[in-house]
Input
Amino acid sequence: MSGEVPTRFRYRTYNLLRDGPTLPKYTAECVGGDDAVCGAVSGEWADQRDVDRWAAAHVAESGHLRFRRSFHDYVEVEAAEPPASTRPARSSG
Ligand SMILES: [Zn+2]
Output
């Protein structure tokens, strides 16, 4: 029969694992400013405290008080083994 709609869906679980050799990176952008967003950026740092120190120094020199902090890392994705209760039963024939 054409136009048949599938009535069962299977969901799969994945595990996201931090990519071992790469370290997370932290950065900040100044979104303060009087008439326009300043846009000054900290660059990437391996330690969040370095980003915070950069922001504090930027506040001291500019008076800007608002920042957007970001964090990024790399992950690898692997399919997880489904729980036994959700595995399809094996047919006997
Ligand atoms: Zn600024």
